[in-house]
Amino acid sequence: MKIDASKPLEYSTEENSNKIFGFWVFLGAEIALFATLFTVYLVMVNRFASGPSGPEIFEIGPVLYETFLLLSSSFTIGLAVHAMRHGYKKAMMVFIGITLLMGLAFAGIEVMEFLTYIHEGATLQTSGFLSSLFVLLGTHGAHVSFGLLWGGAILIQLWRQGINPATANKTFIFSLYWHFLDIVWIFIFSFVYLKGLM
Amino acid sequence: MDFERFKVHGEPLIYGAMISIALATIGIIIGLTYFKKWGYLWREWLTTVDHKRIGVMYILAALLMLFRGGVDAMMMRLQTAAPEMKFLDAQHYNEVFTTHGLIMILFMAMPFIIGLMNVIVPLQIGARDVAFPRLNAVSFWLFFFGAMLLNISFVIGGSPDAGWSAYFPLASLEFSPTVGNNYYSLALQISGIGTLLTGVNFIVTILKMRAPGMKLMKMPMFIWSALLTNVIIVFAFPVLTVALALMMFDRLFGSQFFTMSNGGMDMLWANLFWVWGHPEVYIVILPAFGIYSEIIATFSKKNLYGYTSMVFSMVIISLLSFLVWAHHFYTMGQGAMVNGFFSITTMAIAVPTGVKIFNWLFTLRKGRITFTTPMLYTLAFIPIFTIGGVTGVMLAMASADYQYHNTMFLVAHFHYVLIPGAVFAVIAGFHYWFPKVFGFRLNDRLGRHAFWWIAISFNVTFFPLFLLGLMGMTRRTYTYSAETGFGPLNSLSFVGAVGLCIGFVILVYNIYWSTRYMPKDTNGDPWDGRTLEWATNSPIPAYNFAIVPKVQTRDAFWTSKVDNIPLFEEKITKIHMPSNTGKPFIMGVIFFIFGFSMVFSLWIPAILAAVGIVIVMATMSFDRDHGFYISAEEVIATEKKLRGETV
Amino acid sequence: MNKKGPLYVLFLSLVFLLPGCSSLTVLNPKGPAARTISDTIILSILVMLGVLAVVYILYIFILVKYRAKKSNEGYVPPHEEGNKWLEALWIAIPIIIVAFLSVITVKTTSAVENVPADYKNQTPLVIYASSSNWKWHFSYPEEGIETVNYVNIPTHRPIEFRMYSFGTITSLWIPQLAGQKYAMSNMLTKLNLVADSEGSFIGKNANFSGRGFAYMEFETLAMNTKAYDDWVKEVKETAPALTEEEFKSLLAMEHLGRKTYSSTHLTFSPPPADHGEMNSEDGMDMDMDNGSMEHQDNTKIHPSPAPASETEFDSVPNPELDEPVPTSAVEEHTHDSN
């Protein structure tokens, strides 16, 4: 395998640079996916029938925690990639670890949020609005949860193999994924919660 | 557990199908065991990551599905051949036309196209494989097991019965209480994920792995069409993913997306479906345009006329394909303004398509045209597809569509587009590239026979449907009375369908006959081709090209032959190859189990299967297999052997 | 291409097989809306035949002239990049054709979406057409009568069908009078038409709706004003009133013969609100604004398979329906209500 030393480690082989490009293309598909979900949500947002509407169930508190956690974790995954470029394995692993912990906390709060809604009688089956809300948030949450497993797997590989073209490449792609989820969250925060609370 | 819901009752036809499936399966198992082929099958095919073999498997699966969809079609034509036929009942007929549509579009046309792309794209761009060979295997097995999941529906639990467009509320639990539409949502989802991954894979392959010197505007037309198709896949399939997920939530978990109460909205489904559904049509048509462009250039011995405008017309078609979805439901009451907009965008597609037709005609002009089997299909495509195209413009006119919508006129139109546009193309491509993959040509005489049967019978089958539509016959009607006067034209159409059947039988017989009797091609270039795939040996060695070609012109191989520009200049060195892996296959199997469990709401197996999928993905991530090398000596020996020289 | 010959012979024979133009229902209109569409279709066919002719002539000429034959053995085809002007030509001409057809389309579409031009000064007769399972219910709020699986209309008077569905999406289609339009559960759609000659025209559901779809037809009887008025009078006197119980049992049935009633179901089961797109006279846009409160009311009494349980309506029925409560005159009649 040819390693091109002039490029960053994660881009150093042809396979690596293809994988990064491929992941960008995949993110294109993810954008289409979330765009569709947002469209569905916007169509359904006022169709709450006899169930509660957004303003009646949204609480700003947990949402702010979620936002804070996810935005910060986007920052720490950036730090992890930065550490990786300098070859600091330990720092890199610590930052990935912090990222995953914050992701876990985010997922935890989201689960609590869902349980609160369900407790209040706002379930997937209640109305078109709630169906679309749960599916939009749930899809994002499922992405975060999948990211936790994925990040965990990368962490184990880093621990075993150290920083090499393969692990660097995986970490970098994972960081793209994580930033993407962060951006999706910003949209959710603005178009679901802020708009709903206004 | 209640086993009753797994059963499908009633029809001797279905029992017959069950028995024949069981017998065929037993036959295959016995055959494989007797000839000791299990190991061969596993090592060489089920675990392969070679784009050529994956392509061949795609095409085999597509041929199988062509047979299945064809049987469905014959049953429909027979049931409507005369007034008040008693061959199928309404429910069975509904299932048959639903699966016919799904199978022909998603499990026949698209995999056939993707199969040809798999075989040809890396060769035409001078690459050793696709960008992600393992992902490619994952794509195939997801497609394959998705297709199998849909196919078992007619013997286990019942097939989807709400039409391939599965409009809500008809497709809801309330109006379609069988598991049929659960199969729909899961089988399409699984194979759809496979298709999406194919899209990513081929975009990277085409944009990053072209031979040195092959600038974008020097790519063969088929590569352009493949690139644009995959871009459409990447942006259209996520919409299907969402639509199917919402459908699944509505049917399995009681959500309220498309329901009639609690704020649900049935029109949302129609919109989501067609936002994917219309680009889907171009996913199967654009590569066909690419295939035809290659074949026309080869057999008129001329370069493609108006290359630049050909490329731009495809780009414009791709863009427009996302802006026309509402023409599938002008009659939904969105008013004259909205319909006017979609009429204009739809008709606008006729302009770039017309450009392509004229460019093809002018490629033929001043050429020296030989009528080989692939060329015959291509030449038949032009006049027949033009009928499909002009009726498309007629349908695009919203006011007129109020009368064509939901009638046989529409059915005639899209068969006039899809059969010459996609089916003729894949058959032409199949005949054209067959010698590349297998090292011998299909017999031309048998090929012509099959062609004339198919081309003429096609028109006999589908032209009467235009008239039936104007007579007021609605589509998806399982029977009609004699007073309607629909009888004679439907009978004629059935006669045509029988002719089509005969044509396809000859086509398949030709494969058998040619395998036994056709002589080997020795130089790898039986048609005097123009593009890079003809520059390597046939059958193609695992590494495709012993030396990576250097490209200077559009028809790189042609100019290398005519102007003596050398393609291969470097020395043969060792070649890196990816290793085979069984994980994609295993993943496909688990996805199948997952899908099946979800269809029947068997939650525990479904959760176990989901965990299994994650575990397989994890093991793929932990895999540290970096492939292997074929030594330079071995490459040289293989090359000599393939050229018929003694080692 | 001598072998193309049989193909065209076949095409021609197909045309002769046509049992005359009159059996092409769509091209045999009996009202201005259908006539507009029929004219549009014929015009588009003529334009398209022109396009086909150009392509076919070029095609045949090129194939005949440039096919490989003994006489041109050794001929080496030239390399041609293309030709700006020729390519511009076959971009420009299709654009002109498409532009022409676009204008036609926009004009005719808005023509058939509205009351036909010659009848604009008359107030349309409103008929609510609703589908359930594989039946059609026709409610005449003005007259206060309701029919099942047949509809009688006066000639030379604009009719405004307002469609909705108690279930799957269906499509009301009377090919000789107008194009079709969907009937859906949560949106009211409108179809304007006029019959300008008397007669019986077949109407059907054009949109696949499940098992009984093939039999979902109804008769449209266009009669002169006098005959129509007589019929209305007769129904008012003889037909039974449509009770809520009766209506629920009608909805539950899969198929049904003809039925006639002297009151409508609209009062106790209001239709969904109008779509915002078309100018709704009542100005109620509840459907667009909140969770479509009212349509869920009429779907609550939805037929199979869920048993119709309760019929409590908490929202105000569409006020428009309370309009004219016609008084009945007494007269002789023998209309079959079966």
TrEMBL record, chain A:
<feature type="domain" description="Heme-copper oxidase subunit III family profile">
    <location>
        <begin position="1"/>
        <end position="197"/>
    </location>
</feature>
<dbReference type="InterPro" id="IPR013833">
    <property type="entry name" value="Cyt_c_oxidase_su3_a-hlx"/>
</dbReference>
<dbReference type="GO" id="GO:0019646">
    <property type="term" value="P:aerobic electron transport chain"/>
</dbReference>
<keyword id="KW-0560">Oxidoreductase</keyword>
<keyword id="KW-0812">Transmembrane</keyword>
<keyword id="KW-0472">Membrane</keyword>
<dbReference type="InterPro" id="IPR024791">
    <property type="entry name" value="Cyt_c/ubiquinol_Oxase_su3"/>
</dbReference>
<dbReference type="InterPro" id="IPR035973">
    <property type="entry name" value="Cyt_c_oxidase_su3-like_sf"/>
</dbReference>
<protein>
    <submittedName>
        <fullName>Cytochrome o ubiquinol oxidase subunit III</fullName>
    </submittedName>
</protein>
<dbReference type="GO" id="GO:0016491">
    <property type="term" value="F:oxidoreductase activity"/>
</dbReference>
<dbReference type="GO" id="GO:0004129">
    <property type="term" value="F:cytochrome-c oxidase activity"/>
</dbReference>
<feature type="transmembrane region" description="Helical">
    <location>
        <begin position="129"/>
        <end position="159"/>
    </location>
</feature>
<dbReference type="Pfam" id="PF00510">
    <property type="entry name" value="COX3"/>
</dbReference>
<feature type="transmembrane region" description="Helical">
    <location>
        <begin position="171"/>
        <end position="194"/>
    </location>
</feature>
<keyword id="KW-1133">Transmembrane helix</keyword>
Automatic annotation (TrEMBL), chain B:
<dbReference type="GO" id="GO:0015990">
    <property type="term" value="P:electron transport coupled proton transport"/>
</dbReference>
<keyword id="KW-0472">Membrane</keyword>
<dbReference type="GO" id="GO:0020037">
    <property type="term" value="F:heme binding"/>
</dbReference>
<keyword id="KW-0679">Respiratory chain</keyword>
<feature type="transmembrane region" description="Helical">
    <location>
        <begin position="340"/>
        <end position="362"/>
    </location>
</feature>
<dbReference type="InterPro" id="IPR014233">
    <property type="entry name" value="QoxB"/>
</dbReference>
<feature type="transmembrane region" description="Helical">
    <location>
        <begin position="374"/>
        <end position="398"/>
    </location>
</feature>
<feature type="transmembrane region" description="Helical">
    <location>
        <begin position="96"/>
        <end position="123"/>
    </location>
</feature>
<keyword id="KW-0186">Copper</keyword>
<dbReference type="GO" id="GO:0005886">
    <property type="term" value="C:plasma membrane"/>
</dbReference>
<dbReference type="InterPro" id="IPR036927">
    <property type="entry name" value="Cyt_c_oxase-like_su1_sf"/>
</dbReference>
<keyword id="KW-0812">Transmembrane</keyword>
<dbReference type="GO" id="GO:0016682">
    <property type="term" value="F:oxidoreductase activity, acting on diphenols and related substances as donors, oxygen as acceptor"/>
</dbReference>
<feature type="transmembrane region" description="Helical">
    <location>
        <begin position="183"/>
        <end position="207"/>
    </location>
</feature>
<feature type="transmembrane region" description="Helical">
    <location>
        <begin position="491"/>
        <end position="512"/>
    </location>
</feature>
From TrEMBL, chain C:
<keyword id="KW-1003">Cell membrane</keyword>
<dbReference type="InterPro" id="IPR008972">
    <property type="entry name" value="Cupredoxin"/>
</dbReference>
<dbReference type="InterPro" id="IPR011759">
    <property type="entry name" value="Cyt_c_oxidase_su2_TM_dom"/>
</dbReference>
<dbReference type="GO" id="GO:0009486">
    <property type="term" value="F:cytochrome bo3 ubiquinol oxidase activity"/>
</dbReference>
<dbReference type="GO" id="GO:0005886">
    <property type="term" value="C:plasma membrane"/>
</dbReference>
<feature type="transmembrane region" description="Helical">
    <location>
        <begin position="42"/>
        <end position="64"/>
    </location>
</feature>
<keyword id="KW-0472">Membrane</keyword>
<dbReference type="GO" id="GO:0004129">
    <property type="term" value="F:cytochrome-c oxidase activity"/>
</dbReference>
<keyword id="KW-0679">Respiratory chain</keyword>
<feature type="compositionally biased region" description="Acidic residues">
    <location>
        <begin position="279"/>
        <end position="288"/>
    </location>
</feature>
<comment type="similarity">
    <text>Belongs to the cytochrome c oxidase subunit 2 family.</text>
</comment>
<dbReference type="InterPro" id="IPR045187">
    <property type="entry name" value="CcO_II"/>
</dbReference>
<feature type="domain" description="Cytochrome oxidase subunit II copper A binding">
    <location>
        <begin position="122"/>
        <end position="234"/>
    </location>
</feature>
<dbReference type="InterPro" id="IPR006332">
    <property type="entry name" value="QoxA"/>
</dbReference>
<dbReference type="GO" id="GO:0005507">
    <property type="term" value="F:copper ion binding"/>
</dbReference>
